[in-house]
Each structure stands twice: as structure tokens, then as C-alpha cells.
Predict the 3D structure of the following.
Amino acid sequence: MESKAVVLLSGGLDSYTAAAIAREEGFRLFALTVRYGQRHAREVEAARAVARALGVERHIELDVDLSAFGGSSLTSDVPVPKDRAISSEIPSTYVPARNTVFLSLALGWAEVLGASDIFIGVNALDYSGYPDCRPEFLTAFEEMANKGTRAGALGESWKVHAPLIAMSKAEIIRAGTALGVDYSLTHSCYDPHGELACGRCDSCLLRKKGFTEAGVADPTRYQP
Amino acid sequence: MESKAVVLLSGGLDSYTAAAIAREEGFRLFALTVRYGQRHAREVEAARAVARALGVERHIELDVDLSAFGGSSLTSDVPVPKDRAISSEIPSTYVPARNTVFLSLALGWAEVLGASDIFIGVNALDYSGYPDCRPEFLTAFEEMANKGTRAGALGESWKVHAPLIAMSKAEIIRAGTALGVDYSLTHSCYDPHGELACGRCDSCLLRKKGFTEAGVADPTRYQP
């Protein structure tokens, strides 16, 4: 019998590709989307379309209003930075402890499912400077999960898979394209206008550059 | 200036005592209550009363519906066990990854507040066999937080305080009583009937035993 895995699905390009890799590796997919009060709720609709395209066994959408805490331009009225040179500095779009919260929720569901594998589409190369996208964070999370769960207490080892961690955006797009990923379903923009991506936030800039470098046509519809 | 701390407040006896200890240690209190789909929603009302009694600077109540995942008698229709001999076995009232989720949320808020201290009322002695109440779990959580947050990346060390970790229920009640804690505000029962505690679930059994051993009058109203 195939193993189950919980995949964190945001509706963006990265998490879709990570989930497609999980499927390719033979896992049965259980997709978790967290509605965390982000301004780009378009993402959540995209996550639904992506979950359908992946044929996941179950898709849970969970509300966790991180905007109650403030502190990020993605969940508050602070303007999203535009045309920013991508640097190693931690930007205002960092949502405090977001991946820790997401992975914790995935952990809870995985434990109920009897799964010990979690997939997350984080990336340490084009990672916009987020501390919770670093490999040492993921390893520390696995160790914590081994201590804090019934499965771990019984000797199970948790594995947080981050198949994109060392890939450039172009490599991600090439890998996903080879697996039949339909990137027109995905949404990356931090500050969309209706159906259109802004084309100028960090996320749009990385996405555009990725498609160009991969030599793959960009299906994204940008603001004129 | 006094340091800020985020205290996880459930409305139960333990978290109130832990928060009172944090206040005694000079921290400014920011209380977080998570409504996680527990059947004993009475707890949440108790948390409000406790937050008022503590004089916290802010109290956030956050909805995170862990019942979407199932797997625990506290968030599903599985009956809460009654009159069970307290053992080291993990019981059905274990909510998968609950403390990991709670601490992750506290971490996110603390980071926004510029705090690096979190208080949680877990207890390894009378702990009902929950893996996420063990000291090695809390240490692993701190290490993970140091890797996964902006503050950690900038060299800050996170501290998860669990002042009750090595105390018996009777010692907790004595400590809280000395700090002026009003236990009549708290609620522990996993399966209450209106205002009345059942008197027979693990949580009621531990609470009763604690008051008896502490030689403190139990203000709880139990079902006849």
C-alpha cells in the first residue's frame, strides 16, 4: 500500500510542483491549505483548482487568522514592496512563524492519518530571505515533531520533504513542466488586482524571471 | 522596561497558575487562547475571566479548528473516557500536535510583539501521558524557533517557560493559591454538563486529587 503524505498547498507555483513530486514518488496526497488572513485570497481559489488537478484524496482548507497578530505586509495594511531588488534581507512580507504554524497543522493531520511524511514547497535559493525556508529550520522541525507526537514517542521518524529546497525558480518550473503541472492554475502575486498579477512584487519578479530562464512560456496574466 | 511574554491561556487551572507565575516574575502578559474545536467550549469563557483577573495587556482568542482533522475524543464524537486509572498510556483525549500548534501560534505573536518568552502550563508529572508535555519536546521547540524566526536568525534565543513542568497538581494549587489565583474562575472538565464538571474524566480526577492533597478547598461545582 502506498504511503500517505500531507502536502501544504498554497495555490502558488512552488507548492503545486512539490505536490506533483510527492505524487511522482508514489505518495497518496492529502492537501492542506491554510487561509491565514493573507491579502491575496486569490491564492485559496488557486489551491482548490490545483488540488483538483492533482487528484488529491482529501483537501482541507483551514482558517487561522494570523492577521490578528499583525506584523506582516501580507496580512495587514502595510504596502507590499514593489520593484525591490531581491536581497538576503528579511522583507516586510515575512509572516512571523508562518511555516512553523503551517507545518504544525500538517503534523497534526498527518498524525491522525497515520502518515509520517509532510511536503512543503519551500526554497532556500530564491527564498526572499525568509528564515523559515532554511534547511536547518526543517531539520529542527523534524526533531521537534519526533519529541512532540504520539507517533514520535512510539519511535516513528518524521520526514519534512522540501524537494525544491536547492532548486532555482527556473529548475522548479522545468521539473514541474516535465511532470505535467499546469502553471496557469497557480497564483503567486502578493498584491493582485482581480484576476491580474501585479508583476512587480517580489513573488511576481521571481516568477517572471523563472519562466524566462526556464525557457517556458509564462501563462500568468499581468497588469498592463 | 519589563519584558513582554505571550502566555497560553486555556481557562484551566494550570495555564492560569503558569500565567500568575509569569506575572510574579515581572513579565508583561499577552494572553493567547486558541479555540480549537474542543467540546468543552466552557473553557473559553473561563479563559476570558482568567485574562481579566490577571489584568493582561491584551487577550487574543484565535479559532483554529483542529476538529477538521479528527483523531481525538476532545474534538470529535468519540466518548471521553471516565473513571480511567491514570497511567502512562497516551489516552484518546490526546489532540494530535496540539501543543506544537499552540506554541507555534504563540511564537508568531511573540515575534510581532518583540517578545522572546512564551509561557505554557504543561506538566510532565500529572500529564496524562501526552508526548507534547515532556521537557525534551519544549527544548526541541526552542531550537526549532531559533532556526525558524527572524528574531532567531538575528541571534535572539527563544525561551519556552513551563514553570509547572515538575510540579504535582497539589504543588501547582498551593503555588497558585499563594499568588492569589482564584481557581473558581477556572474550568478543567473534558465533558461538562452546563456549569457543572463531570467529576469523572481524567482532568476532573486529577483536579480533585490535587485540591485534596494540597489541603485547599475545591471551588469546582461537580455533577451530583
Remarks:
- The longest strand of chain B covers residues 28-35.
- Chain B has one domain: 4-214.
- Residues 4-214 of chain B form a domain with the Rossmann fold fold (CATH 3.40.50.620).
